[in-house]
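Section 3.1 - Work completed
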Amino acid sequence: MNYEIVNLEEKKLVGVTDRTKNSDSNMTMKIGALWNKFYNEGIYKKINNKLNEKAIGMYSDYESDVNSEYSVTVGCEVSSFNDIPKEAVTKVIQKGKYAKFIVKGHMQKAVANFWQELWKMD
């Protein structure tokens, strides 16, 4: 798998989040429901201070390993946490070095394939 090491400045996200784990039979439904909520319930449009028009899917807060619970957040990068929609949450991506992977293709299938390949990496 190709990736690039990048240095990120702190990023602020506003969006919606849920907890799941890979062994949860409802995992894909939960993640899909987040994307639907984000766009179809108008949360995307309510977010102020967007830095761009892109949406971010962030996986974070793992308890221990690939089999543990984690948070999934769908949101936008913002310049500040001022005037957050009541149904939204805030998340911060800490400044630091990260591996950057680019996933292309049909969203659900491409992301699922990406995770399968990532888990095989040493």
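Second construct:
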Amino acid sequence: MTNIDLGALLSRIEADSIVTADEIIELRRCIWNDNMITVIEADALFRINDNCQNKPVEWSDFFITGMTDFLVRQTMPRGYIDEANAAWLMQRISHDGVCETHTEMALLMNVLKHAESVTPRLEEFALDQVKQSVLESKGILARSASLTPGAMGETEVEIVRGILYACGSAGGNWITREEAELLFDLSDATAEADNHQSWQDLFVAAMANHLMMLGNTDKVDISEALRRENWLKDTDQSVSWNLGNAFKAWFGQRETPDMTYSILNTSEAVQSERITESEAQWLINRLNRDGQLSSNEITLLAFLKNDCPDIHESLKPLIQSAA
């Protein structure tokens, strides 16, 4: 089909505010006829997604696949989501900063998963969806039956884990300061809630990762990552995170292949790790923000006491007081 045919098809669907399964097949043929989606076509597909009601089940897969391909593989710089592309995506999938549909949230997660690298702003936006869901009951996550209102349930933890360790996350296999701040916000706000045990495991591991890793933000080669021990949950276990398995109950998506990310560095690097004065001061300020230590924070301090080889002196009194 020609571009004129595609334009006519898009115009017809938008005019009717209805998209059928047969029209999705036509759209697929038109758009991938030249293996390229233009910005005009991408905008039209978003309008269809926003305005057409009662879309067939085929729509979500078609739309997420097409938009991911457009953003990750076709839009410059290829493989990367820069500030401009992130801003375009966030504006299209959010309403007052909140994702309101399964398809929008699934697209965001799929872009994070497939991009080689994304701007930190996009990952922070994704994490903020969890924060708004848990703390303010906003967005599609808050309306999911599998989530726990006001607490970090198992599904919330898996969503956060998936965002943090997605291939394109801001720090790769390293937790950034922005990520650490948001995790602390979630921990503070849910300190008295009936959280799933995996939340404390993830919080402690992520904070230790942020404080003890060497700060290299280069992506780890997958063969090297798979070789390393994993300490997200248990230093004696390896962990894999499966997007499809974690979210299929509420995304309605088919399973995707396992993608394993290992975070612990080698024994030689462990000996060189240290918590610096600036890192210690940041942690002290965060721990003292609400005037009392939560269970997550006490467990974190115990972990650092036992496993960090070099802790700045300013942090040691707080560690001892929490023992």
